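Batch job 17 of 40 flagged for manual review because the log was empty.
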Amino acid sequence: MTAHPRLLSTSLTTGDASNPRIVGGHGVWFELADGREVIDASNTAAPLGHCHREMAEAVRRAAGAPVINEGWQWAEREQAADDLVDTAFAGEDWVGAVRFFISASEANDAALALCQGLTSRAPLVTRERAYHGGSGLARELTVQPQWHGGLSSATGVAAPPRLATVHELPAPCGARVTGQPDPTAGTDWIPGARTKLANSAAVILDYSQGGVYHSPAYQDQVAALAREAGAYWIADETVTGFGRVGGWFQFQHGRSRPDMVTLGKCMSAGGAAAGAVVLSKDLLDRLSGTSWQSYSTYRSHPVAMAAIRAHLRISSHGGIYERARELDSYMLRRLTEVASQHPGVVRVDGRGLHWTVELHGPDWREWRGQEPDPLASRVAARALEAGVLIATSGEQTSLFLAPPLVVSERELGMIFDALHHGLELADKEAARGAG
């Protein structure tokens, strides 16, 4: 009988060489079991880095609180909601209220179900290559094929049955660095999008998944189409919220404002599992006289509330939520160099401190299961040899860079040195394919 490990785990980056055993961390650095220290360039859950002193102290204090479930009043929870609205949503007068969740997956699932209940419509809309979570309706709106929540192997994919009708809008998948055109730059896609939204409960947009980074114009157009159709618009800021692309949120770069904003791992800076739905005042008016029928033991847990408040305080006082905006031009310049120097790179796009590097190889639409040794994982393993942990998105050919917002330019330089080292492998693969 084959012996199996007791812990059933998964990783989007395959192989032990690219998945190190981590034993500690500080700032932007991981400490590994083999004694090395490597830069974490792959972690959107840690905008303040690892083991931040103020964050750790806030969590330690909250660990002495009683277990307060979602239904009981707790002053810290009310203060966390006030802090979130007054700090991260300052000047956004349309914001009405906050409800906390355990994760962004849960928040998205609840928000989408609420829209179905309010509209008495079942279909839901997202854009091509989206990711919104791994459970319930959030999983249904996850249309990246490699993150569908089913099974994948060398023989193919076994996807679970659908729970809802999901329509996909064209994605604004141009690229700032490598110049691919944006298929949504014109108006040809709009009639089809209008048809898909016509009888749908909601459209949900994220701003980075699948290497797709929206323009404000795309957001504003989808928002207008949703309003016209009587569908709600949800901005999923799980990755891009709290400064990842510069400023508190990506939706603020456009003119339109959502009916709901969903938040997740970024909001607690890794201090605890947390999520939230931020509702507009207009939506609150629609809920008047009703009860949103769902309840949970661990939502709004005191440790999560303490972590959220600490993160807001630290990021606001230090201006950390603006850090990615300040580094955007640096990242653009360095990644332009990467694209020009490595023939193995086919597409580069991103904003602030979240960037995607796609390599030559199968198109993401051709993904059929977990390859035993995909190119992206081998590039990540080679970068790790050079002292930097980067991530893959589960496809054969996609890498993403997302260091903590507190990263220095010196450390960013080290990340690019390691990336260049890793991409030498992709260049050889591309030359072999051309030959």
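Reviewer: the log was empty due to a logging misconfiguration, but the result itself is present. The longest helix spans residues 409-434. Unflagging and moving on to job 18.
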